[in-house]
Amino acid sequence: MSGLAAPLAAVVSALALGVGGVVLLTVRSWRTALGVLLELLVAAGLLRLPGGRSWPALATAVAVIVLRRVLWAGLGTPAPADHQPAGGPGPPGGPPPAG
C-alpha cells in the first residue's frame, strides 16, 4: 500500500483543487468550497503518512490540519466536523431556530 499511497495522495490533492472549484461555481459559496478543499487536502495529507514515514510527511499533514482549524476559527464558523446533526438544533417538533 505504501507504494500506492504517494501517487494516490497526489491525485487527491489535484482533485481537491478541481472539486473546490466546482463547488464554488455550483454552490456559489466560498465558505463551502473552502471547507471541501480543506477536507480533501487533509485526506491527501493523511494518505501521505503511510508512504512517507518521515518527519516532513507528518509535518505536512499537521500543517494542513492546523491551517484548516485556524481558517475555520478565523471565519467564525464551526469546523465541518463540529456541525450539528442533519436534524438541526433542538429536539424534533420544537420551535424553529431563530434567524
UniProtKB/TrEMBL annotation:
Residues 79-99 are annotated as: Disordered. Residues 88-99 have a biased composition (Pro residues). It comes from the Bacteria. This is DUF1622 domain-containing protein. It comes from Micromonospora antibiotica. The lineage of its organism: Bacteria, Bacillati, Actinomycetota, Actinomycetes, Micromonosporales.
